[in-house]
Amino acid sequence: MKKYVFGVDIGGTTVKMGLFEVDGTLLEKWEIKTRTEDHGINILPDIAGSIQKKLQEKKIAKEEVAGAGVGVPGPVDVSGTVHKAVNLGWDIMNINEELGRLLGMKVAAGNDANVAALGEMWKGGAQGHKDVVMVTLGTGVGGGIIVDGKIVCGATGAGGEIGHIHVRDDEVEACGCGNHGCLEQYASATGIVRLMTRKLESTDAPSCLRGKELNGKVFWDAVEAGDELAKEVSEEFGAYLGKGLAVIASIVNPEIFIIGGGVSKSGPVVMENVRKNYLPNVFHGCRDAEFALASLGNDGGIYGAAKLLIDQN
Amino acid sequence: MKKYVFGVDIGGTTVKMGLFEVDGTLLEKWEIKTRTEDHGINILPDIAGSIQKKLQEKKIAKEEVAGAGVGVPGPVDVSGTVHKAVNLGWDIMNINEELGRLLGMKVAAGNDANVAALGEMWKGGAQGHKDVVMVTLGTGVGGGIIVDGKIVCGATGAGGEIGHIHVRDDEVEACGCGNHGCLEQYASATGIVRLMTRKLESTDAPSCLRGKELNGKVFWDAVEAGDELAKEVSEEFGAYLGKGLAVIASIVNPEIFIIGGGVSKSGPVVMENVRKNYLPNVFHGCRDAEFALASLGNDGGIYGAAKLLIDQN
Questions:
Q1: How far apart are CA B83 and CA B99, in angstroms?
Q2: Out of A191, B100, B119, B148, which could bridge B300 as a Cys pair, Cβ 3.0 to 4.6 Å?
Q3: Using alpha carbons only, how large is chain A's radius of gyration in Å?
C-alpha cells in the first residue's frame, strides 16, 4: 500500500494541486498558473515539474506515491483520453499516458465536474453514498453522475453533461454548446441574469435590481431581501432545475443530489425552490432522494482526482 | 465453470423461461401461467417447480447449473429486492433469497426492462457495446440503462424509468404513476392513441382513422399508408421521444440506443421521427450514438436474465 497520492484540478486560469495521504488526509495544497498559450503544450510539463518539486521538498520517494489523479475541463473517457478541452487549447490526447510518462507514475484523468462529484462522495456532502448526482451551478452548469461508486463517463466522455439537457422549446438565444433551451441557459449564474433581465423588461413592477449590473450574487441577495420580481425569477429557476433533476432521477435514481458552485452560499433558498419543483415531477420511486450542499468548495476537484487515482489502482 | 443457466422473465400473465448454455445458446424455452392470486404467493414456487422438472426431464444435475436469473415487472435493487410489483401482487421481497432457497441454486433478479436491455447487449441489437440505453415502446414505455456493461439499478431499483421522465408541463390527464406529463403518456401505444384522438378532435381534416377503434398497430399502419393527420401525430410522438432520448444521452452518453416493443415492426418510420428530433437537441458529444431495433423480441427478457446471473457469478 502506497502512502501518498496527488490530486490535480486543471482550470482555465489556475491548476489546483493537493498532496494527500491515501486515506484522504489533505497534507498540503497549492496552485500554479495554467499556461494555455501554444495549445496548452506547457500544462502537463508544468504539472509534472510542480509534483517533482513537491516530492523533493517533502523528501518523499516516488515509490511511496500511488500516483496522480487529474480533473480536466472537457470530456474525458474511461481510458483517460480528453476529447477537446477548449479552455486549455487541447485537442484529443490521452492524459493518463502523457502525464504518466512525464511523471513516471500512474495517472488517472477524468472530467472535472465528474471528479468533483467523486470528491464530494469521498470526503464531502455525499459521504456514505454510492449513487450520487452532483450539480455545480457556476458560470455554467456542470454535473457529475456516480453509479455504484463509479463515475459515469459515457461512450465519449460526455456522461453527466447535465447543463445541456434540453428543458425549453422556444428559446431564441443559443447556448454555448450551440443548442437552444439547455438547462445551463436558465440555471447558471449567466442563466439567472438572463431570466432576471427578461423579467425586468417584461414588466414595470418595481424591483431593487432595476438599473443595477446583474450577477448571480446580486440576484440571490435580492431574493433574500424579499424583492418580489427576483423571487418570481428564483421560482422560475427552481422550476427548470427541479424538473431537470427529476428527469435525471428517473434515469439513474440517485440516493442523493449534491448542489455546488457559486450559488451554494444562497443554498437554503436555492434548495427550497428546487425541491418544490422536483417532488411533483419525479417518479415515485425516486422521491426520497436527499438534497445536500457540496461541502468541499473549490477543493472538491483535488479530492476527487486523488480518489479517482486510488480507485483505479 | 458451470454448463447451464436458466433465464426467467415474469410477466403479469405468463412466466417465460429459458434453458441456456452459459455461452448464450438457448436450448429450450417454455412458458407457465403467472398465478397472481393470493398476492402472487404461488409465483416463485411455480417457477422453482418448473425448473426442477426441466432438470429431471433433461437429466441435468443441479451441480451443472450456474443458477437462474429473473426479470421482474417492478423496481428491483442491486441486492435482488423487489420494491412492489403491482401486477404480481407482490410487496417488498428479496427474490435472490426466496427463489434461491426454493431452488437450492444461485438466483439474480432485476427489473424486467433493465434485464431485457442486458439481453439485447449480450445477444441482440446491442452486441459489442457496453454503454446501452434500451427503450421499450409497448402498452407503456419501459427502459433499461447499461453503463460499462452493468445495469443501472439505482438506489431503490427505479433506475432506467425512462417512461416517467417529465416531458410536458400542461398535461391534464394523469399518468399511471400519478404524475402529469410523463413520456409514457405520449410515446407508448396508449400514448399514441391519446395524441391521435386529440388530433382528430382538434380538426375536421380528413383521416382514414376517423371512426376507427385506435390502437398502436392501426395508427402506424395509417402513417405508413400516408395518412396526413397520422403523419403529423407521428412527428409529435417523435418530438417527445427524440427530445427525451437526447436528455438521457446528455446524462449517460450511450454508444447505442435500442428501440424495442410493439412498434418495432414499424421501426424505420419510428426511428426516422425519433432521430430527427434527437439530433438538434442533444449535446454535441453524444451526436454519434447509434440507433438500432431490438432483435430478440419477447426473448430479450430470458436472455438478459440468464446474463444477469452469469455476471453476478
A1: 16
A2: B119
A3: 20
Q: What is the pTM of this model?
A: 0.92
Q: Taking CB atoms and an 8 Å cutoff, what residues of chain B touch A285? A: 75, 83, 154, 156-158, 161
The answer, for B132 touching chain A at a CB cutoff of 8 Å, is no
ipTM: 0.90
To the nearest whole Å, the CA of A208 is away from the closest chain B CA by 31
Q: Angle, to 10 degrees, between the axis of helix B228-252 and the axis of helix A228-252?
A: 90
Closest CA to B16 of B68, B66, B74: B68
- Chain B segment 285-304 residues within 8 A of A by beta carbon are 285-286, 288-289
Q: Helix or strand or coil: residue A149?
A: coil
- Give Cα A169 distance to the centre of its chain: 25
The grid coordinates of residue A282 equal 419525479
Strand partners, A6: A19, A68
**Cα separation, A296 vs B1, whole angstroms:** 47
The vertex-B290 CA angle with B287 and B295, nearest 5°, equals 160
Segment B213-230, tens digit of pLDDT: 999 999 999 999 999 999
Query: Which of A148, A179, A251 has its CB closest to that of B160?
Result: A251
Annotate B177-239 with DSSP letters as a single string. Answer: TS-SSBTHHHHSHHHHHHHHHHHHHH-----TTTTSPP-HHHHHHHHHTT-HHHHHHHHHHHH
- Strands of the sheet containing A26-33, edge to edge, are A26-33, A14-21, A4-10, A65-72, A107-111
Taking the C-alpha atoms of residue A5 and residue B180, their distance in angstroms, rounded to an integer, is 49
Chain B from 46 to 105: CB within 8 A of any A CB: 75, 78, 83
C-alpha to C-alpha distance for A77 and A158, rounded to whole angstroms: 8
Residues in chain B within 8 Å Cβ distance of A170: none
Any B CB within 8 A of A170 CB: no
Calculate mean pLDDT across residues B150-179.
93
**CA closest to A250 among chain B residues:** B161
Q: Cell numbers 427578461 correspond to what residue?
A: A198
Angstroms from B96 CA to nearest CA on chain A: 19
